[in-house]
Amino acid sequence: MASAKTMKKAAAALALALSAGVALAGIVQAEQKQKQLSIGTGDPSGVYFPLGGAVANVLAKALPNLHATVEVTGGSVDNIKLIATGQSDLGFTMADAAADAMLGQDKFRNNKVALRTLLVVYPNRMHVVTIEGTGIQTLADLKGKRVSTGSPGSATEIMASRAVDVIGLDKDKDMRRERLGVAESVNALIDRRIDAFFWVGGIPTAAISRLATTTGVKMKLIDHADIVEKMNEKFGKLYSRSRIKGGTYPGYRTDCDVAEVWNLIVTGSRMSDEDAYTIAKTLVEKKDDIVKVHKEAESFSLDNQVQDRSPVPFHPGALKYFKEKGVGG
Question: What is the pTM of this model?
């Protein structure tokens, strides 16, 4: 028969084991409660990627049980496709790409995606970039030239193709087309492997700032705001006139009149109203922290949350927050 001392040791060991088991169960339960959030962004040399990182940091600080990750992608089209397959929870997209996804057209032909907007974020300006010596002064001068229309899976490619279309050019027959991201396009232009490129993004875009300061080349931006009406007539009222002001890029002092389209942060049909409410509220109310990373976040404001700027309906949870603040819809 076990001694009293042995029985006490066994009881203590059992109590310790039970205590450890309870503690371990608590850790597992805490881990299970932590929400994973994947954010689709874009080219690291663009604006989506740094903004996505800032969004992830702000959400993680405000919501301790949230683990947010940022994904490098081809951009808008890729981000929507990742949401459709459940690989991302939210993503940045241009409004025209989101409209195509909702309607099941162009790059989403026969594959409609049920999207919801969490936030209208900032306007993207279309840059048509060349350098002195190429002979390119207008969009029409792209005929016969080596031109990058943006990386596959990007909304740059969508908007560039539409711009070329409305001036009567065939992107595959009338140009020698490349499909490069913004950083690759800058390198190719510096090396004279292309004559011009399209980029649709926030300002300033880091890669274009680099081009503007590159020794031995003189950057030139091509005016094209005059095509906005034709684009809207053919593709829907998605575009508006804008201006890249002189001084936006180092040493480039000339104003450039351009087409712009709004950016959205979207999600799919699976996000709860509660999560959508919290995310929208946090991004608006912590805007100043995001502005520290990129000034385009100044547009993460309540007065931009109007349905006319998004072809995608607002998520009911986000809309609840906007209406509490007297905007939205």
Answer: 0.81
